[in-house]
Design goal:
This protein has 186 residues and is α+β, with helices and mostly antiparallel strands. The protein is built from 8 helices and 5 strands.
């Protein structure tokens, strides 16, 4: 079981790695430490002092991630690159960015309706988490958005589930012609 004080997003990220009792115990021990103790753990783990302005929560997330990496012996290159960028930013006095928000969970039966170039497209969420559009089943909204537009698209952004600057740059502004709405069934 994960410690209750560990931020919700960190608990969600670490769930797979906590199946080992030793990892769960290590997370519980880390959660009980104060900022100075976490900074000492950082120095021990990474061989350099912790950033001066790093908050307790940041240090806790970093050390919890380290515990996950040690438990699974895996660190994807994209994660390594992101961590190095965050570390450089903290060293240079830039505050750490927030963790990305989780995509909203869509309940089975939810309908996503998007008007595109004068045509209305309706996508239904299946009980198995897949999506149905025009009688075909898809694993992702991005595949559907690409089929509709003929170009690669971020599906959640295309259907209005995510509001990102990048998605706003690619997707034309909402108008009666390209409006999107989300309907949920009880």
């Amino acid at each position: 079981m994960l410690p209750a004080r560990l931020p919700r997003r960190a608990r969600e990220i670490l769930m797979p790695a906590t199946s080992h009792p030793s990892t769960a115990a290590r997370l519980a021990r880390l959660d009980a430490l104060g900022r100075d103790d976490l900074a000492a753990e950082w120095a021990s783990a990474f061989g350099v002092p912790a950033p001066r302005k790093a908050s307790r929560e940041f240090l806790l997330k970093a050390m919890a991630h380290r515990a996950q990496v040690e438990a699974t012996r895996d660190l994807r290159p994209a994660v390594r690159k992101a961590l190095l960028q965050i570390g450089r930013g903290l060293r240079d006095g830039i505050t750490a960015p927030e963790l990305p928000a989780l995509a909203p969970t869509l309940k089975p039966g939810s309908r996503l309706i998007r008007a595109w170039r004068g045509e209305t497209h309706e996508v239904t969420v299946s009980p198995d988490g897949r999506f149905a559009w025009r009688g075909r089943r898809f694993r992702s909204l991005s595949n559907i958005a690409s089929s509709i537009t003929g170009t690669r698209r971020n599906g959640p952004a295309f259907f209005g589930l995510r509001d990102t600057d990048r998605a706003a740059d690619r997707t034309p502004p909402a108008s009666p012609r390209t409006a999107c709405r989300r309907e949920a069934r009880p």
